[in-house]
Amino acid sequence: MISEQDVGGVHIKYLYHCPRQLWLFARGFRPEATSATVQLGEAVHDTSYRRAHPVDLGSARLDDLDGNLWVHETKSSSRPSPADEAQAIHYCYRLRLVGVDTQGAILRYPKTRRTQRMPYEPDWDERARTDIANVRTTVAQPLSPPRPARTRCRGCSYFDYCWSQ
Ligand code: SF4
């Protein structure tokens, strides 16, 4: 069973994208290491954010925390998603747990030049705790969660594994 402290940003992202992906990831299955999608994400990150100051919180590692205590995340997708927002809220929660009074998060999408500012809201801590609990419940399931509609799997690095049977 994964502990509360071990739940990181990737777990939160996968919880929202696909519980099956979360379940597989938590069991050490990592096809994303060779995925073209992930390589694109890393390239976008490297070329967009050279002067960032990453913060390592153990299981959660965020791109940057600026001097005004805003969390910055750079994404390779085109537009904000519930997964991106939940991940940002999770990082703010983790920082607040260790006494860093974050002001919120700024999500950047270099591909479409979009920026989304998310000022901290009082219900974020509760949302983050609920997400952590849902991650732990999903991971504890004895069988992998079912696949969603195939259209949701487009671009997923687990595609070959899930759909080659
Ligand atoms: S390929 Fe589809 S079912 Fe498999 S982990 Fe990805 S989104 Fe989930």
From TrEMBL:
Source organism of this protein record: Nocardiopsis changdeensis
Chain ranges of the DUF83 domain: 9-164
InterPro entries the UniProt entry points to: Dna2/Cas4_DUF83 (IPR022765), PDDEXK-like_dom_sf (IPR011604)
A Pfam entry, by short name: Cas_Cas4
Name of the protein: CRISPR-associated protein Cas4
